Amino acid sequence: MSGHLSEHAYGKIKIRVMKLNRQSSGRHEIHELTVNTLLWGDFADSWTTGSNTKIVATETQKNTVYQLARSHDLSSPEEFGKVIASHFLSTYHWITKVQVTLFEDPWGRIHIDQEPHNHAFTKTTTERRYAKVVQSRGAPAKITGGILNFIVLKSTQSSFTGFVGHKGSIMEKDKWTTLGESTDRIFSTSVESEWEYASDKAPFNECYERVKTAFIKNFAGPAKEGVPSPSAQLTQHQMCLGAIEACKPHITDIKIITPNLHYMPLSSLNVPAHMHATNNDVFFPIDGPSGYITSSASLNRSKL
Ligand SMILES: O=c1[nH]c(=O)c2[nH]c(=O)[nH]c2[nH]1
């Protein structure tokens, strides 16, 4: 046969775990995670000969996550991921690399008449925090933090002008361009981002909150006046720079994807002309097609 095994890895996905921490004050804390494990090592035989002598069953990997959850805190997905990765490397000497990905479910505490409830929670946001821990034997863990589905919207202070097909652009006439210039539009996006930590000992929970705050601040601007966004591209880059600055020196690289969630004016919908809103105040949201905008930024290490 002319083919050969060139790569192999295996693991368990969708290991859902919730930890309840009952504090003596009567207050409860909950943390819910979905964990994926992936192992690399000297187990090619399982693929090439069917011999499983070095295979740590994916069922065992699942059990391991629950056992480690019994003895460890789940409040930081990055820290719990490190615990899982170290466990596999220290227990099975033929495993060379472990990747653990952990997605958090966003439980928020219920408040009754402004008072935080001791033991009742609700899912308050759409966002999903995640962490990825990749650890090779003998090396420090590489830690990635991330956020998915973090939805934001601003109802003004967003424009888009001067693009190809319009005055001032590199090509003022373009037969393919139909979009008119806009000086006041709705800007909404579902932010997806991930960032690399400089070390495996960064203050992960604090950095996560700082990234989110920097994203919001740079997207929205000050509470009263906001901040202009001449392109989704510029705002996206400012969000990344803000996150790096807010977490200095812990985050070295950040990547962001902001697919537009479009709110179209009625005038672009097939409705009678007299229904075209004159106030520009009724819109129809569309799922797609939508703009897909992505960029990365890195910490300028020379200025540290
Ligand atoms: O901020 C924007 N950037 C674009 O690249 C683009 N393209 C588009 O159709 N609308 C927008 N808006």
Automatic annotation (TrEMBL):
Subcellular localization is given as: Peroxisome
Q: Which family does it belong to?
A: Belongs to the uricase family.
**What are its E.C. numbers?**
1.7.3.3
Give the positions the UniProt entry annotates as the active site.
K12 (charge relay system), T58 (charge relay system), H262 (charge relay system)
Query: Which positions bind 5-hydroxyisourate?
Result: R185, Q233, N260
Give the record's pathway: Purine metabolism; urate degradation; (S)-allantoin from urate: step 1/3
Q: Which residues bind urate?
A: T58, F160, R185, Q233, N260
The main enzyme category here is: oxidoreductase
Catalysed reaction(s) here are:
urate + O2 + H2O = 5-hydroxyisourate + H2O2
Example GO CC term: the record gives: peroxisome
- Annotated function: Catalyzes the oxidation of uric acid to 5-hydroxyisourate, which is further processed to form (S)-allantoin.
Q: Where does O2 bind?
A: N260
* Keyword Oxidoreductase included in the entry's annotation: yes
Q: Name one GO biological process term.
A: urate catabolic process
Q: Which UniProt keywords apply?
A: Oxidoreductase, Peroxisome, Purine metabolism
State what protein this is by name: Uricase
For the keyword Transmembrane, the answer is no
Give a GO molecular function annotation for the protein: urate oxidase activity
Record Pfam families: Uricase (PF01014)
